[in-house]
Specification:
homodimer, about 600 residues, alpha/beta, seven-stranded mixed β-sheet, two-stranded antiparallel sheet, 9 strands, elongated
């Protein structure tokens, strides 16, 4: 017997659509165009070259041994390539997630200890499960509650915290401190213990990286090199500085002779299988960190993926992205990795290097796997200061103090949110800071909607258009006041509105009719219905009749279900403002 | 030299207006009309008759000796009469505030103890200070965040808690329990210890009170008594039941012979001066209770005052009400009282009895002062069961289970909020419950605004009116899609909107122009500006031009301050939807 799909082509199409939706890789694998192959392969290699030092550096930032960073850059990438909808997004360890891992887990266990790694695996699993659940339930919209100013401020502040946190590797003496000011104080107090060799290597690396990024790129461009070559050379800078660092450290045996901290032995071999050990108490303790990581990493990652996709006229499915990132993180927890997401800078490089499909990610994963299998002994002499330099140069570009100025120009409230978030993250810590930022944005929004803009409108020339009397040269009539309320009516603004309308009427004793224009009223709740009921009585007591105009369907539905509609009277409800004015004799 | 005001009449007027605003009593004192005097005096006496038993009963509910209730009914009333803007509001102890006092303070000290009373004084001071501050800063609008469903559910649930809490006085054995279910379980477990005499007196009082309220009023009315006499007789019921209770208890010495709990000695004399002892730790511990009392009592009190004032065509200034209630509570803390506010039932009686100005309140205060000075010994034999009956009958009318049904009909979300609040207050306690209620209302509101209603509109006949294609028979053109977004654009909905618009365009390959109609867009934040910027690029990539129409002034201001306006282009911004459609050739 033939399968169902063969007999019913439309079933086959629907099935295929569903499979394609949940396994987007099938689409590009099936229709893979051979001319894309070189481009994808080169992009994969370029990204791998960038990811090798980054993954080790970010692992160090997360309080983990360097191989964990490499492990997190193999299996999760393969899973993302199969499930993700972006061909350009470079999934793997990123700076801010690493910082969040460090802050969240170091409160529960000593960084680098067996228990610490166990907790990190559990965290990766939780992050993955939450993302997966949000994606499957198509609830990605929840993440929209992190607003642009909050994310911008959080990113800048976190980047500062990360950069300052790396000072201990550059200066060569231990610097702790839970809060930023403690870290700064300890850094200054210990300056006399600075290890000069470590400092020299760290500063040299920073100089090299900045030169490659800021100075070399324009030079190469002016020299006429093709863009791909420029990208390849510039993004190879971290690996170059790693190689130089290793050569110097090895040549002079600086770990023995000058007390230089080096990475040491990295076990060879593919990512070992791990099982995240789940206990209720640990899961509960890690939950705030997991939620923060989900919030921050997904918003960033989807934004990057979207921006890069639209340049190639490809489309991103945000919920499927959640599924893919969720699966990638769960994979990380079973292959000795740690939480991963799409990195901004690396994805841009990936796209510039020509990534078109998920094949680029597969090539990158293969590159990292090769390193793990054969080249780990090379990194024995890698100075930690070089990795710290990689982190510092990567994050310092995230500190954007011009963005709050741009925000200030368009929206003072949003600028205030930026400032509160920035200061809170620096002063009170990462998670508290972002929570305060989100809360500030919400409170400001509610505050704004609780004091709606109210405009008295008049007729614009001989048109049917009615506009604010304070902004336009419009015609009004003394016995009618037409008021447009620029907000939905709900509990937080309903009494404010009542006061405002009564004041408007009190200031105009000649007014006999008040027309409430509903063009901006998008819904009305039961508190507002109560207040309206009361307002109509008060207006009647003052000798003013109440009219409605331009009420939208959903609002009218609510009104009909209450007894208010009868109280207002059908003849006092008008389809448009103009109809209301004509009915009230405002013709001349 | 003449004072400034004599030389400048307009200064004098302004000064007077200010004095009148902050001391409203001056206005009614200065222009007092003699014909109002009998009405005010009778109302004051009627309210005093009602307040005597109520103030002692509510003090008992608050875990305080009865005289504290009487003290709270003298000095605070005088202060309110001078500063308040309502002539009808009857300030004094009320049931729900008393319950909140008991719950908040009994967690810190044993009810009735010296420390308990000290904490209650501090609480009254804090409640007063918060109200005063909100009033002076004109921040009363904050209280609007408690929505109608939350307040309705809270009131019903609290009334149930209060009524069940009074069972111990009616049954005559101790019933404790922090949560309602514990109280109910203890009440049932102890039924065999019921004191039959106490129960008989309690039930008789309840019967008498219900008869006066439900049965007698219609009888008297039908008998042709004037309304004032009816009000006087009906509102005298609590005092009558008090007198009967005293006579029965005294005659048979029921405290000795049958173990009846009586009020006992009440010290004679006017409210003693007290000073609230302020320590940081106590203030911190009491803050949640103080905030809850402010929230609940002010909303209720102002709503009552407004409703009664509008019947008499008088006006209420909500911020001045906060000042007056704040000053009344601070006064309570210095005259051995406890938190007071405007009571609903008592204020209605006050108004029905003819209260016109604050003089009625002054008469009431004088009546209570007389009781304190000369008649306290009378109340020695007052059975506690009679006071409990007063409380039960007063609050049981507050349980309104038809309101949620009314809410359900107009707004499912609000009905859900009602249910959550009601269940939370009963199951988790007063303060947690109201907090959960307020939070639920806010989250529902945000959720609603994060998924805005989006309508594709078309032309209604030959008018300039454009309405939803799904609700009206309208004309559309294939190359233009006009979309009205029924919500302000802000961080929580901006990505939802982007997805929705892209989907609309994707489903209509023939569309060349998208017109976004801004008639319901009341503001736009920086996150939305970012998303719009991105959306315009995406639409351009898809071969669709982006237009704006019907943008309001404040939104246009924001757009001009960003670079978005240049990107859209002046010729793509239209004053109305109709203008946009004409410009795009939609004429036929």
């Amino acid at each position: 017997m033939a399968p169902v799909s063969a007999r019913h082509p439309e079933v086959q199409t629907a099935l295929l659509a569903m499979i394609y939706r949940y396994l987007p890789a099938l689409r590009w694998l099936r229709y893979y165009r051979r001319e894309h192959l070189p481009s994808d392969v080169v992009a994969g290699i370029v990204t791998a070259i960038m990811l090798i030092p980054q993954s080790m550096a970010y692992a160090q930032l997360a309080g983990l041994p360097p191989q964990i960073g490499l492990y997190a850059s193999v299996a999760p990438l393969i899973v993302y390539a199969l499930l993700g909808t972006s061909g350009q997004l470079s999934v793997g360890p990123v700076a801010i997630t690493s910082l969040l891992v460090f802050h969240g887990v170091s409160a529960l266990a000593t960084p680098g200890s067996e228990r610490y790694i166990q907790l990190v695996l559990l965290l990766a699993f939780m992050v993955g499960a939450i993302k997966l659940a949000l994606g499957v339930l198509r609830l990605g919209v929840i993440l929209n509650f992190i607003s642009h100013p909050v994310l911008a401020a959080f990113t800048s502040a976190s980047a500062l915290i990360i950069a300052i946190g790396q000072l201990k590797y550059i200066l060569g003496y231990p610097i702790g401190g839970e809060h930023l000011y403690e870290t700064i104080a300890q850094a200054i107090a210990g300056l006399s213990q600075t290890n000069p060799v470590t400092l020299a290597i760290g500063l040299a690396s920073i100089g090299l990286l900045i030169f490659f990024r800021q100075g070399l790129r324009p030079l190469l461009r002016r020299a006429g090199l093709p863009p791909l070559a420029v990208t390849l050379i510039v993004s190879g800078a971290p690996l170059l500085s790693v190689m130089l660092g290793i050569i110097v450290a090895l040549s002079f045996q600086l770990d023995q002779t000058a007390g230089l901290a080096i990475v040491g032995a990295i076990p060879a071999g593919f990512s070992p299988i791990s099982t995240p050990a789940m206990t209720m108490a640990d899961a509960q303790a890690l939950l705030p960190t997991a939620l923060t990581i989900v919030l921050v990493s997904v918003v960033e990652s989807i934004a990057v993926a979207k921006a890069l996709a639209s340049k190639r006229r490809q489309a991103i499915d945000p919920d499927q992205e959640l599924v893919a990132l969720g699966a990638a993180n769960i994979t990380a927890s079973f292959f000795s990795g740690y939480p991963v997401t799409g990195g901004f800078a690396r994805s841009v490089v990936n796209a510039q290097a020509g990534a078109i499909t998920g094949l680029a990610s597969l090539v990158t994963a293969a590159g990292i796997a090769l390193i793990l299998l054969f080249f780990t002994p090379v990194f024995y002499y890698l100075p930690q200061a070089v990795l710290a330099a990689t982190v510092i140069v990567a994050v310092i570009g995230l500190v954007d103090l011009r963005e709050p100025q741009r925000i200030w120009r368009t929206n003072r409230g949003d600028a205030f949110t930026w400032l509160i978030t920035f200061v809170s993250v620096l002063a009170l810590g990462i998670e508290t800071g972002i929570f305060i930022g989100v809360a500030t944005a919400l409170v400001l929004y509610l505050w704004r909607t609780s004091r709606p803009h109210i405009a008295i409108v008049g007729r614009l020339g001989d048109s049917e258009v009615y506009r604010n009397v304070e902004r336009h040269p419009v015609k009004t009539w003394p016995h009618v006041v037409a008021v447009r309320v620029d907000e939905s009516l709900y509990f937080a603004n309903t009494r404010y509105l009542e006061q405002a309308l009564l004041r408007i009427v009190a200031e105009r004793p000649e007014v006999k009719h008040l027309v409430l224009i509903g063009s901006a009223i998008n819904f009305i709740d039961s508190s507002a219905l109560h207040t309206l009921d009361h307002l109509i009585d008060e207006l009647r007591d003052a000798g003013v009749e109440f009219h409605l105009a331009d009420i939208k369907g959903p609002v009218m539905d609510r009104l009909s279900q209450s007894e208010l509609l009868t109280k207002i009277g059908q003849d006092h409800i008008h389809i448009t403002t103009h109809a209301a004015m004509l009915a009230l004799g405002c013709r001349d």
